[in-house]
Each structure stands twice: as C-alpha cells, then as structure tokens.
Specification:
single chain; ten-stranded mixed β-sheet; 399 residues; two-stranded antiparallel sheet; alpha+beta; 11 helices
Length: 399
C-alpha cells in the first residue's frame, strides 16, 4: 500500500436492512438480496455505464446452497449487469465483506482496474452455521493436535476471552444494553436512511375458501435486531448458552441475521473522467492471525498494524466500527488497544443490529462512509474478529 499507482475511492454504497434469522428475509433467497443491492448501487450512479464494471467481488462466509455456485456472478446476472461483467466470491468468514473492499481497492491501487463492485451477502435463515454438511478434520478434535483451538465453537472462544481478560458478566450485559440503546436512537433519527435500500418481501398464503393464493407485500427498510424492551434486569436473567459456569449469553452475543451490501470502488482517473463525487478514499487494510481459541482478539492485532501501514495515530480515527461478535471480546479489544469508547459503534453494533457473517464487513463499511459524510468527520475504521483465529481492519477517509 506504500507503492500506490493510483488512489481508490468509494463513490456509492448501499445495503439492505438486516433481518433477524428466520425473520423478515426468512423466505428470501440470498442471491436475490445481493441482486437487489447491486441493481440499486448502479441505479445510484446513472452516469456510469454498467459495462465498464471490471469485476464484482462479493464476500460470503457459507458459500453453498442458495449462496453457492459463485454467488457474486449469479447476483450480478440477476441484477441485470451485462454478461461481460465477471464475479468472484470471497470467503474470510466474518471479514469477507471487508476483504472484498480491500481486494477491490488493491487492484485499483496497483493499476489493475478502474471500477469494481465490492460487497457481501449472507442468509443465516437459509444456510445453517457451518454449512449443510461440515466435516472437520479429526485432528481438530484430538488432544494431539496443536490447533485444537480450531475445533472450539465461537461461543467457547468468547468464554475463554472473558476469563483470560477478566471481562465480568455485568460489563458484558451493560455493553449489550448500550448497543441496543444506540441502535434504537439511530433508527429513530433515521441515521441509516441514506444507506438502506428497502426490499419488498412477498408472502403467499392459500385462501382455504377459494383455493387461490393470497399475496401480501411489505417493505423491509429498518434493521430488525434492536430491542426496545431490553434492560439490565432482563439481560441478567439470561442463562449462559455455551458454558454452564460461563458469562456469555444470547443477550450479550451478536445476532444471527440476513443481509447484503455493495460498494462501488473507482480509481482517481475514473472519478475525474466521469465527474463523480466520492464518499470516501480507501486508506489501508490489514489482516492477522491469532490463536484460534481467542479468535475474538484479532482486532487487537489488526488495528495497530493498519495504523502503522497508513501512518495514522489511533487518535486520528473519528469513527470505529468494531464488530460485536460478543460483548466479551469487544470489551477485551477496547481495553487492550485503549479505544475511545465514545467512538466505538456510535449507532450500535452487531449485538443489536445483527451479524450476517460474510456481509457484515461491507454493511459496516457502508455505515462508516455515510456516517463520516453526515457527521463531517474524517477517518473511519472497520475492524472484525474472524473465526479460526484472525483479525482484520480497514481505514476509510471521508473526502
């Protein structure tokens, strides 16, 4: 990233609302969600001929079933993009959506392309966690293997982090409650309005009298996850779900969700040639590995790395989207890196807003670029912990 031929700019970004798993998008195909954001993305920049798009790079953590067979290419075709526009699906688990943005920017930085769509999609309603038929290597489950931590479920890694970094149950519940409160305020203030493209859901019911179908339609334009009735009292009553003596509950963990997002990334020369107004410049990206059993600590390693790469100080970052996989790991990262809590997830995080795995990085990047513009702030960061022990962080500059 220190030898850029040209800068990469984001000129458009949009997302669906995030639906609860088995909620608003329970009967909606993920490739249809993706096609919807791709079409709306291109509609928002009518001055760009779709045939100029050089690639569609889409993140997906469980690329099988209805989001298999290279969902990026399928989504592009369903969106009506020309046959000449290729597509590739990327999987870095929870950082997949952010990874696509970095890959698009890197191609442009090095002069390999001028205009690329990045994004992500995930349906946790229709594709089970781990996919339909996961077969783990038996060595993962053997005490003889060095990488036994790979076999741990994500909830157990959160329990390990909570214990190792002394994150109390009360602190986790307080963090979770704050996430819901911030998200509800953001929704009431229409903070997400500029980034969400409403999706019309159609439901079919048989009329037992006539035998003809009854078709209902509804527009989904608000994130489903935030709960107005949350309180410390109700959160404290929830039992641990991963360890009988643990502190990680359904209330202080991220929600399983459905959603999609897309961002249009262009070179500086393309920007000028087409007289486009940028939302943000892509500054840098880092990805690291950590011990699988403490996968939630990935951002604590990725953040210093991307700051060094970009030459920025932590104080320079105005807005931090730290994916709330669990309150335990979020708090541990905040403490380890000494993040300014007032800058972290100002509109709520995944505990309230949901976490559609491979789409979350792109969704949160979309929130950052619109948020920086709206608040007239300069630098934003998106950072994720990643299953099997990784961390990723990307920095964007509002321009």
């Amino acid at each position: 990233m220190t030898k850029k031929i040209q800068e990469a700019y984001i000129v458009a970004a949009c997302r669906t609302a995030v639906g609860k798993a088995k909620g608003a998008f329970a009967h909606t195909r993920p490739d249809d969600l993706l096609a919807h954001v791709l079409k709306n993305l291109m509609d928002s920049v009518p001055e760009i001929d779709p045939s100029l798009i050089e690639d569609v790079i889409i993140g997906c953590a469980m690329p099988e079933g209805e989001q298999g067979m290279n969902v990026a290419r399928i989504g592009a075709l369903l969106a009506g993009l020309p046959d000449s526009v290729p597509g590739v699906t990327v999987n870095r688990f929870c950082a997949s959506g952010l990874e696509t943005l970095a890959q698009a920017a890197n191609r442009i930085n090095l002069g390999g392309a001028d205009v690329i769509i990045a994004g992500g999609v995930e349906s946790m309603s229709r594709i089970p966690m781990g996919g339909f038929k996961f077969t783990g290597n038996p060595k993962f489950f053997s005490n003889q293997g060095e990488n036994i931590g790979i076999a741990y479920g994500m909830g157990i890694t959160a329990e390990i982090v909570a214990k190792r970094y002394n994150i109390a149950r009360l602190a986790q519940d307080e963090f979770a409650l704050k996430s819901h409160e911030k998200a509800l305020i953001a929704i009431n203030q229409e903070a997400f309005k500029a980034e969400i493209v409403p999706f019309t859901v159609m439901t079919h019911y048989p009329d037992i009298t006539t035998g003809k179908p009854i078709i209902n339609t509804s527009k989904v334009s608000i994130d489903q996850g935030p709960r107005a009735g949350s309180s410390l009292q109700t959160l404290s009553k929830l039992k641990p779900v991963f360890s009988a003596e643990g502190s990680v509950t359904a209330g202080n963990s991220s929600q399983m969700s459905d959603g999609a997002a897309a961002l249009l990334v262009v070179s500086e020369s393309f920007l000028q040639q087409h007289n486009l107004t940028p939302l943000a410049r892509f500054c840098g990206y880092s990805v690291v590995g950590v011990a699988p059993e403490i996968m939630g600590m990935g951002p604590a390693e990725a953040i210093p790395k991307v700051l060094k790469q970009t030459g920025l100080s932590l104080d320079a970052i105005d807005w931090i989207e730290l994916n709330e996989a669990f309150a335990a790991q979020s708090l541990a990262v905040i403490n380890e890196v000494n993040l300014d809590i007032s800058k972290v997830n100002p509109l709520g995080g995944a505990i309230a807003l949901g976490h559609p795995l491979g789409a979350t990085g792109a969704i949160r990047a979309t929130t950052v670029v619109h948020g920086l513009k709206r608040k007239r702030l300069k630098y934003g960061m998106v950072t994720m912990c990643v299953g099997t022990g990784m961390g990723a962080a990307g920095i964007l500059e509002s321009v």
